[in-house]
Amino acid sequence: MKKCIIASTSTIHGSGYLEYILNDLANLFSNTNEVLFIPYAKPNGISHDEYTQIAQQAFQKINIALKGIHSFADPIKAIKDAKGIFTGGGNTFLLVSQLYKNDLLTVLKEVIEAGTPYLGTSAGSNICGLDMKTTNDMPIIYPPGFKTIGILPFNINPHYLDPDPTSTHKGETRETRIKEFHTLNSQPVIGLREGSWLELSNNDILLKGALSARVFEQHKKPYEVPSGSSFANLN
Length: 235
Prior knowledge:
about 240 residues; Rossmann fold; seven-stranded mixed beta sheet; 7 helices; alpha/beta; four-stranded mixed beta sheet; about 25% helix
C-alpha cells in the first residue's frame, strides 16, 4: 500500500523549508525516526552535504533524523533498508540521470509500492509520474531515458503557473507546453500549484492544500478540480 506525499514545492512564500507541510510529514513518517534523503537534484549548485543539512533542519522539528543516500556505500541497499524516503527538488534531468546511473529507479518503485513512506517535492514529485517529460527544468544533462518510477498513472507539472491576463509577454505558457506534450503523449497531466500536494493513501490519490489543481487530458479542454478531489480513476 503506497503512502506518499507528492508536493509541488518544498517552500512557499513567507514560510521556511517544508514548514507548510510539516504536520502532514509527521503523520506520513509516524512509524519511523529516520528518513533517507535523496539529494541528487541538488539545486543552485550546492553540494549533497549542504542540501542534506537544509533538509535535516526541517526534519529535526518533527524529531526525525535524515541521512543522505550519498553517504552510503551501497545506495540500493540504503533504499531497501529505508523506513522512509524523501527526494528533494532541484533539476529533474540531473535527478533522473543520477537515479539511472545508480540503478535506483526500479528499487525505488518497489519499496514505495511495498509501503515505504515517500515524500517528493518538485523534481522529487516529477519522478512519481509515468515520465519526466512535463518538467519545467532545463536539460542540463541528458539522462539515459525519460521514464521515471511511475507510482502515479499520470504526469505531474509542479510549480504550475496560470497565464497572467495582464501580461504583454507573448511566449509559451505552461498550458501551451502541456498541450504540446499531448500532441505526442496520451497520459493526463496534473498542474500542481504552489502549496498543493497529492496524498497517496489506501490506494486513493487526493489533492490536498488550499488551492485547486488544473487537469489536462489529451483531446479535452483543461479543467479545474478543488482540493479534496480524488485522482484515483485518472489515467
